[in-house]
Structures are given as C-alpha cells and as structure tokens.
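Annex B, item 7. Sequence and structure tokens for protein A, then protein B.
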Amino acid sequence: MKKKSSARELLQKLGTLMALFILVLIFCIMMPDTFPKITNIMNIFKQASINCLIASGMLCALITAGIDLSVGSNCVLCTCTIGVLVENFGITSTPLLIIAGLAVSTFAGFINGTLLTRLDLPHPFVSTMGMKNVLWGIALVITGSKSIGFTNKGVDGLMAIGGNSVFTTYNADGTVNFPGIPISFILVLVVFCIFHVFLTRSALGRQIYCVGGNPEAARLSGIPSKNVLTFVYSLSGFMAGMAGVVSVGRLASANGNAGQTYDNDAIAACIVGGASFTGGKGTIWGTLIGALLMAVIRNGLNLMGASNDIQKASSIARAMVTKYGMSEKLGTIAYGNESDEVFIGRTMAQARSYSEDVAGLIDEEVKSIVDRAYARCEEILTRCRPQLELTAQYLLAHETMSGAEFAKVFTDPEAEEFLALPSAT
C-alpha cells in the first residue's frame, strides 16, 4: 500500500514534466526544421519569463487557499508607471525606475492583503477582482490611454533586462552561432532558486503552507495568519512588478490595455504545475514546468501557422480548467467570461512573437528583392540603351507616343527612319 502511494506521488510530481517532454517531442517531429533550433528554444524561454515571474507570486497566494486576480493589471501598472516617469519627467536612471515600478506594485499588493485581512472579506477573489479593475483604470489614466514607447529614450539598460541575451557567440563571417541565453530567463532561474529556499527552508515559508493547509491548526499554533496573508499578497504584487520591469524590454512600450491574459496564464501555470485551489500544495519548480508547458504550446501553434481561432480555443480551454477549479472552490461565485479579452491578449502576444521570429528573415528578403530589382534595371539599361534613347528623342519632339510606335522601336532595326525623327532627317 505504501509502495502504491509513493508511486502515485511520484507520478503526480513527474506528470507535468512528462507532458512537457512529450509535447516537445511531438513538435520536434512535426516541425524538425524550425522548432528544435536553438534560436527557437531561447525564444521560448524569453516568452515564458513574464508568466514565470507572475506565477511565482501567484503560487504563494494559491498555497494559502487564496488567489490574486490583480497580477495582470499590477504588472501593467508597473510598466505604465515607468513609462510615465520616462516620458513626462525625463527620468532615465535604471535603478530609480526599477525601484519606482516595484514600489507601486508592492503597495498595490499590500492593499490587497490589507483589504482581505483587516476587513475580514470572505475570499480574496472579492478584493483582488476589484483591485484588478482599479489598477487597470489607473494605468489608463496616467498614460492617457496611449502607448508609450521606450525605444531611443535613454533607457537601453532597463530594456536589456527583458530584451537582451548573454553569452552570444558569432562565427568568423559575423553570423550568429549561439543566440545567447535571455537575461530575463536567467532572472527567472535566480528568483525561482530563492523561492525554493524560502518556501522549503524558512520559517515564514512553512507558515505559508500551514495557513493554506489547515488555517485552524495554524491559528491554534500561534501563527499570525493575517500578517502571513498580508505578506503573501505584497509578495505577489512585488513579483507582478518584477514582471512589469521585464516587459519594458520585452514589449518596448507601456500600454494600459496590455496584459489581459496574464492572470489566467499565471493561475494555469500554477495549477498545471501541481498547485491546488484548496491550498497547502504546490512547488516553485512545478510552476516553472507549467509555465514552460504553456509557452511551448503557444510557440508551437505560432510556428505551425495555426489560426487565431485555434489559439483562441486553446486559450479558452485552459481558462475553463482554471475557472472550473475556482468554481469548485468558491461555490456560487462565478468567474465571468473573458473570452474577448483572452482573444485580444492572445493576438497581441502572437504579433509580438511573430515580429521577433521573422524580423531578421524579412530584412534579408527585402534586401534580396531590392538587389534583384537593381540588377534587372542595370541589365535592361545596358541591353536596350539605343532603343530607350530613341524613345526619349521621340517624346521630346512629339510629347506622346502610341503603343504601335513604342513596339516598333524595340522590334524594327529601321525604327529611326519609320519614326521620322528630326535627328534622322
């Protein structure tokens, strides 16, 4: 009996990793020329970075049997705050911009925790759903409902966090040999290592599991549950802000309408990775695998050229799994239908992914077309120079030229006498 139980636990822990491995294998078989390339693999890591960071904070909320629906808008507010500081106040100091963005997001998370614990709300769904709309409204107000670009604004150091890679190598002819590891994914690995130590080795980390696993036992043990919950939602806001810092380089703009799918994606990554809405369960490495699984699905669909409808259906399927789990936990509280928002967010994410994947190929193709057109013009000028000069002389004398006369120039050696040009008489 004990062996069966241990085997079941092992299968639960490795199930998501096996699913990721099988999915990667399927895409490699279907697209052997594109998907397995190291450039595409690094692109998947870059695409998963924002979701990984948000999901790390979401995991702590789920472990306490709660949820934070404001992470998407919190991430967007951080990016918009940085954009306003750069655009309206001319601040370009990277440390100052990062501190300002993280402070705003952490404070929003602190408000979430305070509303939950001090007002004794029945579930964080209420406070975080309200905060979600408030933060999105603030982001739209401070940006004037406009997009703020970061390119050529003197914040290249900040943009490098989400857009650049390290350890890139080149061949002798200048072409890229190894595209490098995205800085954003290195940040993810560092953060996840810290989270692993925090959740498994620290007293506060164990208290988070206790509060979610058995709140009454935690209270009787003297654990300050309200303080733990306030810290958890402040941490969730902090991680959403860190994702907002990464999105500065990832998206190269601040837009109050962005991030419509961030909260759904983060919840799905945690649940797929082994967390539970009932609390007390979940690991940071399972969340990483869940986020990578979602990034692989999205990248594979993009490379396959799947239509928006197929990607929309895939997104809705993940949302339905998430919403079913929430309704099972919350009973009569409905999550609401956000299919249009999911579709808009998916389209924006797909456009960004396509632009990164094919920008280099487009530049090469345009250059090739221009070179071929230039060579063709040179060939025509060399081969048909006498006829073109004769046509120019005729037009100078008569202003117009019929189709028959034009054809005569290029087919009849005696065209000069036929046209009766002044220079020929």
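Protein B:
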Amino acid sequence: MRTFQIILADDEQQILHGMERGIDWEGLGFSVAGTAQNGKEALELMEEYHPDLVISDIKMPFMDGLELAKNIHENYMNTKIILFSGWDDFEYARLAISYGVSEYIMKPINYDEMRKLLTDMHEELDREYDEKINRARLEHAYAESLPLLRQQFFTRLVTEPMDVEEREQQIKSLKLDFSDFVYSVVAVKVQKGEEKDILSELSIKETLKEALEKIANVYEFGMSDKEIFILGSNKKHDIGKITRTIDETAVLIERIFGSRISCGISGNAERLKDMPVLYAQAVEALDYNLVLPEESYTYYNDIMPLQEVEDDWNTQVEMIGKSITHCSEEELKNQVEELLAWLHKGHYNLNEYQIVILEISFSFARFYKKYQITSDTEFAGSKKMAVKILSLSTGEELDHWLMNYCQLIRSVWDFSNPLFCNT
C-alpha cells in the first residue's frame, strides 16, 4: 500500500491532537507530515512537505480554511483538500467547491465517517498516482521512440505527398522546426574504408552533420544504405558554400577514417510539399557521383545529358581484345585505364554505368571463348558475372572489377598457353 502525506490544520488544540492521535493513519495509508493551528502555519508546512492531502477547519485565525484552500488550489495543484466546519453555511460550501475542495463535511465527525472518507480518498489518490505513472511511462517510451518516429516522418516527407494538416500536426508533435524560407536535400553514401566498424561510420556521419550545421539548419536520417540531410535556411542556399563544406569534410574524413563519401545535392525549394522532388534530385545526383571516384559531390543542376560514347568504348574493347594475349601486365593496365577514361566522359549514373560495365565484360568474355580459355572457378558463366557486377555500388568498385577481370583473362591465358610468353 502506498503511503500518502497529510497535513492537519485546526485552531482548537484538543481537536487537532485528537485527530493526530486518535486515527490509525498508517493503517489507512497516510503519514501525518505536520500539524498547524492556522492557515499561515499550514502554508509554511505546504512549502516544506508538498503533501498529498490537507484536512483543515474553516474557522481559524490569521488565515481561515477557505483562504488556505484558495492558496493551495492556485499553487499546489496536486494536493487534495478536505474542509470541515461547525457551520452549515451554503456560501461556505459554494466557495469550497470553487476552490477545488474535494470534500466539505460538517462537525462533529465520528470515527467511522472519517475512516470511510480517508479510505475513499486513498483509493482516489492511488488511481491518480497510477495514471501519472502510466503517463510518465508513456512519455518515457515516447521520448525513447522519438528518433524512430522522426525517421518515419522524414521518410514519408521526402517520398510521398502528405496532407498539410497531418504534416503540420506531426511536425508539432515530433518537436520539429520547419520554419525556414528555403530547403535543399543532400544524399550521402559512405564508402567502406580501413575502419569498417559501426562507430566509425557513425562518426563519419556526425562529422558531416556538424560541418553542414555551420551553414544551415540540418535534419539527418537514414534511408536504406544512404544518409539524408535536409538543409534549411532563411535565404536561398549558396551552393558554393555547400559544395566547399562537403569537399573540405570529405578530405578530413578520408584523412581520419580512410573512407570516402559520395554526395548528391538537390536544387532549392521553398515549400515542404516539394520535398519529394528535392529528394529525387539528390538521389539522382548521388547515382551520378558514385561513378566518379575523384569527386565528393554532384550537384543536380550540373548533371549533363548522357553523351554517346558507345562507339568509343567498342573501339577500345576491340583493341584490348586483340592485344590481351600478348601484351604485358602494365600495357594491359594502361589500355584499360584509357577505356575507363572514355567511360567517365559519358556522365552515366550508377545504374547506367553498371549496365555499361556488364556489356563490356560480356564483350571480354567472348575473347576468352575465342581463345578457348577455360576456368570453372573464375569464368562460371554470364549469370554469376551479372550478379557480381550489379552488386557493386560505386564507380570505383566497378572500375576495379573491370581491371581485375581483364588481368584475370590475361593470367589465365598465360597459364593455359605457356608457349606464348609475355614480350
């Protein structure tokens, strides 16, 4: 059983002593924190103990029970009040109700009546405590789930149209501030470096967030394998500041963590309903940037139309195919690097670049069939090769794969044909 604190107030010492000594407070779930002979004394005890219940006579010197009840009602909202009086006065009862008094009873009070009254009061206080505890638990659970709830909201905000009223209500309930004049979105992918643990990845994201916060209001959240930053400002974003910030941070991240970041930057918009457009722009720009290992960002407005370079790479592939069986390792490396340089001029996004590398790889595969090269483990068929290429997530990884694939064809040819040594 909970024990609730109580203060007793009556100007008649005999009655006050009788209440304190004559009732089994502990058995009823109460503890007498103090007694007072007038309202002023009671208020002093209130300040010290903040009791759950005050039982007071109405007629007292200096400050009567009604004035005491008024003060408690205004300043101690969690304290309940029971007033008793020897005067059957309607005006007293009316004022008592207006001051939030829980019970107004007439003297004399017998023991059974007081015991029932206190039992009922204890049950009421118990219910209120339970409700407060449950609310506190809910508030604690809500606070713990706030990051997840925000992430869910951000995901909807950037991927689907939202009803204005619902959107504003969620912004308020999630304690977000979207009062900026203009917005843009940055989509980021962290490339795996020497440090591959989760804490290093979190540190990289936090490093970028701290840098961006110097030039804009920032909200950050994750989506799939990307980190999304919503930038807000009271004036149109200076793309130069954003790109310089990303460039400088990318250098710092590579120096500290040995990792690279690839970023796609959207255009600007003033309305929150345009957020899905900004997100799509940022993701598209990121797809282009993933193909460019030497660049840390791509700005959506700088994306150039796809250039036709098919003839160029077909020519390069034919040249490599004619020399792959007799050129040196260094010569082959140079030829493949020239091919990759041609490809980078095409302004492909990631998906387009994967398809190009896949087509080139199939072209090379025809060479080892032509030269009757066989290897069950390394050249296990077009399906396995396609799955591998489509699993690569950056231009740098695709470039490395193509280089290694060409070198592999050459080395298998050397192994299968010992009479044809490198010149």
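Comment on protein B: The chain is about 55% helix and 15% strand.
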